Each structure stands twice: as structure tokens, then as C-alpha cells.
Amino acid sequence: MPTTEFETNTDKKSITRPEPEEIQFGKKFSNHMLVANYENGQWQDANIIPFKNLSLSPATSFIHYGQAIFEGIKAYRQKDGHVVLFRALDNWKRMNASAIRMDMPEIPEEIFMNGMRLLVDFDRSSVPSLEGTSLYIRPFMIATDEFIGVRASEKYMFSIITSPAGSYYSKPMSIYVEDKYVRAFPGGTGNVKTAGNYAMGMHHTNLVKKMGFDEILWTDGYEHKFVQEIGTMNVFFVIGNKVITPDLMSGTILGGITQDSVITLLKRKRHHVEERLISVDEIEHAFKYGELKEVFGTGTAASITSIAKLTYQDNEIVLPDPENFEIANWLKLELSDIRYGRKEDTHGWIFQV
Ligand SMILES: *Cc1c(COP(=O)(O)O)cnc(C)c1O
């Protein structure tokens, strides 16, 4: 049985609220963490403890075979002082979809949601308050059998850590459209949030960065013809009066919660949204005829990131000035207004801590 009580064997000592200019993403962590262990077919306990190093056997299963999944969520401090989570229940559902795909146990809602709420409440003072800042929440699960035989682990650890995140100004990106390497194939794990999806892209992403690009736009593994997603972001194209984003049918794209929020907001504003295959040819064709108005990425880390340039083989697609991206800039503002409580949340996306 999952315990419904969270033991908090720690002092509630407060830290000073971090100054936004000293926040570097992902380097500083709040004072506490949540840890729950899975053993003998059940979740055993869930504790909020002081943030500390883990002590693990070098034979720990996930180190060798990569049964490791994670999530990314943000908590925002609203003007009235309330701290809220954005769509965290959807992250819980997605984490369990990842768990099933990687043959890991699902996490009870109680541990994930209540644990996260309690943890954020505990370290409330580390939620920054300036516009654009947030507390980044990183739930993750790893296989913890001390065994180097190849099989699904029997023991797992679920944990949540949090990290203050600064105002994320994301300058427009220059993107390399991939025509050789592959991120995900139908039947693979591209549609779940597992560590290996990132490991395979590190080398090539670094090479592309050395060439002066910011990120890779992955394409399908058969022909490198249809676009998938960018690094940690889903991608949108505004062609004429249509907004197009790759659909999730092939199972090669991670369905972003920001992507889903953007689709919802656009449809509500009566924009014409299409979720379907979109080819590099179609994008180049639209560019040639002056129909390609905007390209942008969506994800929890940077919310909406405008794309200034796409490079595919010898062709460069240079977008109009991203400062004038009507849709991307509207979406950015709309999402901020909902998250920081300036606009009513009519979608049930906001969860009070
Ligand atoms: C997490 C992630 C995204 C973005 O998902 P959000 O829920 O919007 O943060 C997109 N692509 C990949 C590969 C991801 O891991």
C-alpha cells in the first residue's frame, strides 16, 4: 500500500528567496527532496528529506541498462503570493505511460501529486517571484536492483527534486534539420520521457552546436522527409493562416503538455490548427512562396521559443523577424497570463499548492 502520510524528518529551515539574476537553470536545488521506494511489488514509503547525495551500488541496474524516466513541471508564484503548478496531473499520466513502456511500476497519484504539492510547499521560499521565473520540478524514477544481469529490475526509486529557474528569455534559434541521424523510430521509445532518448542525441547535437546551430530538428528515420521535434521541444509552423504541428500518430514524438496547451489555446481563438505529417518539402515550398510566417518550439523549459532560421542540407530558410511573430508572441503572453494568475484559468490547468 502506498502510504498516505509523508514523513518529513527534517527541520523546516528557510532559505532566502533566490535572486533571479543569480539563477542558472538546473544548478541549484531546493533544500528538500521526495524519495519513495518500490520493493516486493509495492510502493513502500514516501518521505520528504533534506536534499542529499544518493548512495548506490555500482551494480545498480539503471546505470547499466537505462531504465530511467523523468518529467519536467513548473511551479509559479502568482502576484497574490499563491504558488501554483501548471497541468501537473498530465505529467503524472505521462510519467506512468513512460513507466509502462519501460516496464517500470506506475506511480500512485497520491505519491506523485500530493508528494509534489507537499515538497513544493516545504520549499515554498525557493519559488522565485519575478515574471518569467519559476521553480522547476523534476520527478524521476530509476531501476535500483543491485544486479548486472539483463532483466527488468524488481526494485525502483521514485524521487522529486526542485530547482529555481530564472527568467527564461529564449533568443530566436537557428535550427539544423537532420538528414542523417535518427531520434526515434515507430515502435521505439520516442513518445515517452526516458533517459536514453537524450543519450543518443548528445554527440550529434554537440557537433551541430559547434557548427553554429542551436538545436536539431529531428526527421523521420525512413526518408528524413517528415519533421518530428526539436531537442526538448515540439514544433509549430504557421503557413498562410494555418498552424501546423506534427501529429503523435507514429509514436516517434513526445506529446508535450505545452504543445497540447498551445493547440487548445489556438483552437479557442478560432485559429485553424492541423495536427498531421509535415514534410521539409512542404516547409521549403511555403517559404519559397512567402507563405511561411512563423516557426516556433514549445516546451516547459522555455515555454515558446521562436525559430529564426532552419537549415536543411544546402537550403536556408530565414524567417521574418521573430519579434513580429504574431501567434508565437500571443501564445507566450497568454500562457504567462494564465500561469501568473492575470487571466482566469478556464481550462483547469492551474493547481494550487
Ligand atoms: C519534455 C519534452 C518535450 C516538451 O514537453 P512539455 O510537456 O511541453 O514540457 C518535447 N520533446 C521532448 C523530447 C521532451 O522530452
Describe the structure.
By secondary structure, this protein is α+β, with helices and mostly antiparallel strands. It has 2 domains: 7-166, D-amino Acid Aminotransferase, Chain A, domain 1 (2-Layer Sandwich), CATH 3.30.470; 173-339, Alpha-Beta Barrel (D-amino Acid Aminotransferase, Chain A, domain 2), CATH 3.20.10.10. It has 8 helices and 17 strands. Strand 9 and strand 10 (227-230) form a beta hairpin. The protein is globular and about 60 Å long. The structure holds pyridoxal-5'-phosphate. Pyridoxal-5'-phosphate binds at residues 72, 193, 229, 232-234, 254, 256-259, 298-300.
CATH superfamily of the largest domain: D-amino Acid Aminotransferase, subunit A, domain 2
> What structural category arises from helix and sheet content?
alpha+beta
Please bin the fraction of helical residues.
10-25%
Q: List low-confidence stretches.
A: none
- The span between the termini is 25 Å
Largest sheet: 9 strands, mixed
Q: What CATH architecture label of the largest domain applies?
A: Alpha-Beta Barrel
Instruction: Give the overall form.
Output: globular
Q: What is the CATH C level class of the largest domain, in words?
A: Alpha Beta
Radius of gyration from the CA trace?
21 Å
Q: According to CATH, what is the topology of the largest domain?
A: D-amino Acid Aminotransferase, Chain A, domain 2
Q: Write down how many β-strands occur, each being a DSSP E stretch of 2 or more residues.
A: 17
The percentage of residues in β strands lies in 25-35%
